[in-house]
Structure formats: structure tokens, C-alpha cells
Write the C-alpha cells for this entry.
Amino acid sequence: MVVDQATEFGERATGLIDQRELRTIFGRFATGVTVITAKYSGEHFGVTVNSFASLSLDPPLVLFCLHNRSSFRAALDVESSFTVNILSEEQRDIASLFASGVDRFLKVNSLPGRGGSPVLTNSLAYVTCEVAQQVAGGDHVIIIGKVVDIGLLRRDGRPLGFFAGAMQKLEPYQ
Ligand SMILES: Cc1cc2nc3c(=O)[nH]c(=O)nc-3n(C[C@H](O)[C@H](O)[C@H](O)COP(=O)(O)O)c2cc1C
């Protein structure tokens, strides 16, 4: 059960965190949506990710969290590169495609970025990185990337958002 009352705060015994409830709570943190791509052994990899975050300006670093069982892990040796494609609100279908099992690169337009990882055209912006570090984090691994190339593709584009388990359009205050 999801508890709303502030009186319940702190009364839960440690270790009694229900996974479904935790997912609901984590989902209340609104994020953007990215597709992270890589080229490894001549093959293209790509996965939809909302755990992307900027980490450091100097040195320039980013991070994202990848499930331990993700097929994308095979593409992420140390010194391999990846590109974070920051999606626009028109790319909802692409976000769904890269979160599913079907052949992900058949229907998308892309150009090779630095190191070969695909830059998805029509994204808002991209960040290409070299893998700097991988840190274990429970059922995920935190991938830290050193930024080697960046590009703003659509200055006035609107972002794709993710909130409460659903893709969203983010509206500015009037
Ligand atoms: C909006 C959204 C955000 C997601 N964020 C992540 C994420 O941050 N990390 C992750 O490992 N999977 C995330 N996923 C799930 C993967 O995209 C999905 O499990 C995908 O099928 C994994 O593919 P793979 O098994 O080929 O790696 C997200 C899915 C969606 C729809």
C-alpha cells in the first residue's frame, strides 16, 4: 500500500520495503528520457535509460545505471565509448522501441558519432563518452563516462519526460 500521511514517516521497520511500492515512489521523481547507444565488435547496441545524470563539469563526467542483466553490458568494456541521446517529445516511439526486444536499429535514422556509437537524428542533444568507471550498485551497475564529444541538435525542441511509469510531455509555466 502507498502511504500518503506524513505521520507514517519513519515508522517503517528497516528491511520492510516493498518493491512495488518502492517503484511507485521512485517513479514520482520525474526525469527526461535518453537512448544510450554503442558500437561494439561491429554491432550496434541501444537501450532506453532514464537514470542518466550529469556528474561533473571539470573533469566532464556523466553517469547512468544499467541493469546487471542488460545486453548492453557486453558493449561496455573499459575504454569503449557510448553516446547518450537526449530524446525529444517526438521520439516517444523510439523510447518504446529501445526498451523492447525487437530489432532496434532497423527503423531509426542515425549517424556514427565519435568511436562509432550511433547518434540518433532528431534528438535534442547528444553526449559521447568513454567508459571511465563501472561501480556495482545492487541489481544495477553505475556506468561513469568521460565526455569526449557533445552536440546540440535541436535548440528549440521539447523534451520527452517520464513520470509515474509513463512518458510525458513537459510543459513550461506560462
Ligand atoms: C522510460 C524508461 C526508462 C528506463 N531506464 C532504464 C535505466 O535507467 N536502466 C536500465 O537498465 N533500464 C532502463 N529501462 C529498461 C530498459 O530500456 C529495458 O529493460 C530494455 O529492454 C533493456 O534492453 P536490454 O535487455 O537489451 O539491455 C528503461 C525503460 C524505459 C521505458
In short: The longest strand covers residues 125-137. The chain has a mean pLDDT of 92.
